[in-house]
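Apologies for my clumsy wording, but are you able to produce some protein sequence, whichever is easiest, and the tokens describing how it folds?
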Amino acid sequence: MQLARYFVLASAVALIALAGYSAFSTAGPLLFSPTELLAASWRSYKDAYIDASYRTIDPARGVTTSEGESYAMLRAAWMGDKPAFDGSWQWTKDNLARPADHLFAWLWATTTARSLPATGHVLSYTTASDADSDIALALIFAYARWQDPRYLAAARATIGDIWREEVVTIGGVPYLAADNVEKNSGSAAIVVNPSYLSPASYHLFAMVDPDHPWESLRSASYDLLAKSAALPLDATTSDGLPPDWILVSRKTSAISADAAKNADTNFGYDALRVPWRIALDYAWFKNPAAPALLARFSHLTDEWRANERLPAIQAHDGSVVDGSESAALYGGAIGYFLLADQKDASAVFRAKLLSLYDPATGAWTTDLSYYDANWVWFGIALYEGLLPNLAADLPKSAFGG
């Protein structure tokens, strides 16, 4: 079944179900719209994680990342929240901009060390290519929504530098590396995080930056995702799910596991984003490569039907590494279920995502981490069909340089 149909059905199913779903209220049935949920949870997110300077804070680590800023900018653009978008974008420019290009330092934190400014500083000027891509996408959306050419100019500059600094071409095939260091590191292989790949964004980047072959990267990303999910890597067999991290040989393009302890091949904290990003490409552009890839992830269906839950972390062979549940994982995995089976998608959505929201307070029923709060929101919005391609109605001429 096509994803567009899922989106139409999903909203109806969710609202019908809520009428008798007692977990949402002790005072009887309570109906609310998906747009109200997203707006209310966006407000509560800003209260919890975005300070007066529009810096997004991950309180568990006491840091700010380019990822966090990119999520805030994307959500603000989708919500039409111009003050939050402009504030987040300004903070990002003021504090994360790198001096030599139009990319962004990935890590910033406050400190009390005498040798460093007490107000905060960049801890690492290395980039994170997913954040750079999401920031560029958010800027395109801001341009489409508010028609300020400065957004488009900034997007174009960042997109061009993503290609120049973060895309590595091997045997004529482009690969998005995890950061800017990989391109010129001289290592035998480049580090790739499969969840950083964003095929839907590349289709838009091709219009903004016609000087680089973004459609080639889009196609190559699907090939890389399919191969990395199928290969056993550091296990004896593969469960067919995408890994958190891989290496790509500079000589042969061969895919292998990274031996580093912080670069595992699990389907977990990072890889959970892959189904969501792929489903978005289908939702916006009906790319036939999307359902073909997602069909490979059927291990998720097997897990859900057997246990009515998904483990937070699975090894590449399907064994359970962490049997607890991750709210973020359900937010990402809903992209798979939307294309796999309507009944399963509805069940996962109601039991694991919608159940986290309290309409009486407009907030989550449990304390969610910064990461969980984002990916629950992204998952609910995807399921409800409320993550539109804001640039869809712009003619190609609107992107002309």
